[in-house]
Design goal:
Blueprint: H1 2-14, E1 26-33, E2 43-45, E3 48-53, H2 56-69, E4 74-77, H3 86-90, H4 94-103, E5 107-109, H5 128-136, E6 140-142, E7 146-147, E8 159-160, E9 162-167, E10 170-178, H6 182-185, E11 195-196, H7 199-212, E12 217-223, H8 244-252, E13 260-264, E14 269-274, E15 277-282, E16 288-297, E17 300-301, E18 307-308, E19 312-313, E20 315-316, E21 333-335, E22 338-340, H9 344-357, E23 363-367, H10 380-392, E24 398-402, E25 413-416, H11 417-423, E26 429-436, H12 437-447, E27 455-458, E28 460-464, E29 488-493, E30 496-497, E31 503-509, H13 510-513, E32 527-534, H14 535-542, E33 564-566
Helix pairs in contact: 4-9, 10-14
């Protein structure tokens, strides 16, 4: 009997694991993230400084927990892995690749900020850092709509237009798409020899190839424009069809072309179904994980049997000691409603990267109150940054900074270099330009169109009407795009109305001068008078010169003398209201 029992046990042990049959439905779990932006560290939850959210050890711990339940889950990312914390920037993105390799990402779309680091010695002069990262990644990096100047698809080693991921005997086809706005939302010189093709046409061209591969489900990783109106930072809005590029894919392709779309770029929250297509977008910076249990039968995905979970916000009690040099507590605790243990290997990776990149803990100043940024109205961070630019280039009449380039708020109390690095992680250099008043007017017109967030300003005031939808065709393509709307009412420089025939000295970043945020037409024929330092270095140097803490002498945004007035053009600018803050593409 013992011998017989032993033989049975051996036969069971040696039996290969059961595989699904074509006749039985299989559940494949998709976990979605996007716009990681090198977010190694936890951050204060917006509106609740006593609660932290995200941080690589917590993201990794959450995924460990999910894999205990579903070892075969598929982890998908919708792009913008780069451009964030100092160790990631100091390693030109390598730190972010190591982080995503560690958490087991299966595939990622190519995002606009993934091009930010430019060339490296011995590599491509424009994209060497990105291409080196592509070879280091253990996941598939996907984009189907980027082409070289000769028309061939841009596909260096490690990159592909689409891939197949196999789970539980099912084949998932995964396509990547990148926004056509990429040249306006990264340094243009890094992509000026590439073209970003129409997403719909690019998918149509690929479908025959994918159908021939006999996939059981088709998933999009899209770093694309298009969003539903957000209701709050961690609240879902009403289900809708997003606008712009995402909306075009949903309405111009046959219904149900994609079984699921994992979306990035707009930093919004989506978790709903449009027809037979599931949409997932998970804010940014590892703050949220989306989840979809996709049921796949012999005839493909069964939408009604599939389950879309509530997004998991990775909120927790603050743990990271930061520059206080305390120990990082790796004890399990509540993470957005579930008990999770932060990942020790993830913490070790962060510490190795910090040791390589160097410390940013030097104290440089203080803030009397927490200081906020905004994309849709005058902000405290915007005024601080543009005042610093004006200080660095005192000959400037005007200093401007795009709202989207300011990436973090500032806490109350002691400010360190790491805080300012978070505000300005990009290697943007300030320039002094000589512009006519007419060119300055064009700059403010495009900058107040609402297409990319408004221009923050020092040395000038401007007034625009947020409800204007009309404009003129500035690029000659026969259409009036969002960036071509003319919402500008007036501009004042110093105490005088803008003179179209006068000449002005304007401090600006090389990102905007290179055509970022569609501002290129305003700078045609404009000469660079002077090249200044990196804006980040300007912030480091400016703050210690102040006699008092920021906002100690009064608010940085003066409601009685606004730099930016948002109201109908026939209203009193000084008494105007402000626009409603929203979420715009990064």
């Amino acid at each position: 009997m013992r011998t017989a029992s032993l033989m049975v046990a051996l036969l069971v042990a040696c039996k290969p694991p059961a595989t699904p049959t074509d006749d039985l439905p299989v559940t494949v779990t998709l976990v979605a993230m996007n716009d990681f932006h090198g977010a190694l560290y936890e951050e204060a939850l917006p509106g609740d400084p006593e609660t932290a959210i995200g941080g690589l050890p917590w993201v990794a711990g959450a995924l460990d927990t999910l894999r205990e339940e579903e070892p075969d889950l598929v982890l998908l990312d919708a792009g913008d892995i780069f451009q964030g914390s100092w160790p990631v920037n100091a390693t030109q993105g390598r730190g972010a690749i190591d982080a995503l390799n560690l958490i087991g990402v299966d595939a990622s779309a190519v995002g606009n900020h993934d091009f930010d680091y430019g060339g490296v010695e011995g590599g491509h002069p424009k994209r060497g850092a990105f291409e080196a990262a592509g070879e280091r990644a253990r996941f598939a990096w996907l984009t189907a709509n980027i082409h070289e100047a000769d028309g061939e698809r841009w596909q260096p080693p490690g990159f592909a237009p689409w891939t197949v991921i196999e789970r539980k005997g099912k084949r998932l086809g995964v396509i990547g798409l990148s926004t056509t706005d990429t040249p306006q939302t990264t340094l243009f010189e890094n992509v000026d020899d590439l073209t970003f093709a129409d997403p719909v046409q690019s998918v149509e061209a690929l479908l025959p190839e994918i159908e021939a591969a006999d996939v059981d489900a088709l998933i999009l990783l899209g770093h694309l424009t298009g969003q539903c109106e957000p209701e709050g930072y961690l609240e879902l809005g009403e289900p809708c069809i997003p606008d712009e590029e995402v909306g075009q894919l949903l309405t111009e392709l046959p219904e149900g072309t994609f079984d699921a779309m994992v979306l990035g770029h707009t930093h919004t929250l989506l978790a709903h179904r449009v027809g037979d297509t599931f949409l997932l977008s998970s804010r940014a910076r590892g703050h949220v994980l989306g989840r979809l249990d996709l049921v796949i039968g012999k005839d493909g995905v069964e939408p009604d049997a599939s389950r879309l979970h509530e997004p998991w916000a990775l909120t927790h009690a603050p743990v990271d000691p930061g520059c206080d040099e305390g120990a990082y507590d790796l004890a399990a605790r509540d993470l957005g409603g579930r008990e999770v243990t932060p990942s020790a290997p993830a913490l070790e990776l962060v510490q190795r990267l910090e040791a390589e990149a160097g410390s940013l803990c030097t104290e440089v100043g203080c803030a009397a109150t927490p200081l906020q940024r905004s994309r849709t109205e005058e902000s405290e961070i915007g005024n601080f940054a543009t005042d610093a630019m004006a200080w660095a280039l005192p000959e400037a009449d005007i200093a401007i900074q795009n709202s989207g380039g300011l990436r973090a708020n500032l806490p109350q109390g002691t400010l360190r270099r790491e805080d300012l690095q978070a505000v300005m992680p990009f290697d943007n250099r300030i320039l002094l330009l000589e512009m006519t008043g007419a060119q300055v007017e064009s700059m403010f017109r495009i900058g107040s169109s609402g297409a990319h967030g408004i221009l923050q300003v020092s040395g000038a005031r401007y007034h625009f009407d947020p409800d204007v939808t009309s404009g003129t065709d500035l690029d000659g393509d026969g259409e009036v795009a969002a960036w071509e709307r003319n919402r500008l009412c007036s501009v004042t420089v110093g105490d005088e109305p803008l003179d179209p025939a006068a000449t002005y000295q304007v401090a600006i970043t090389d990102f905007l001068h290179g055509g970022g945020d569609h501002l290129g037409p305003a700078f045609e024929g404009v000469s660079v008078s002077k090249e200044g330092p990196l804006l980040r270095e300007v912030l480091f140097d400016y703050l210690p010169t102040l006699e008092h803490c920021l906002a100690e002498d009064g608010p940085l945004v003066d409601p009685d003398a606004p730099r930016i007035s948002i109201a109908p053009c026939d209203a009193d600018p000084a008494g105007s209201g402000t626009g409603k803050a929203g979420s715009l593409p990064d």
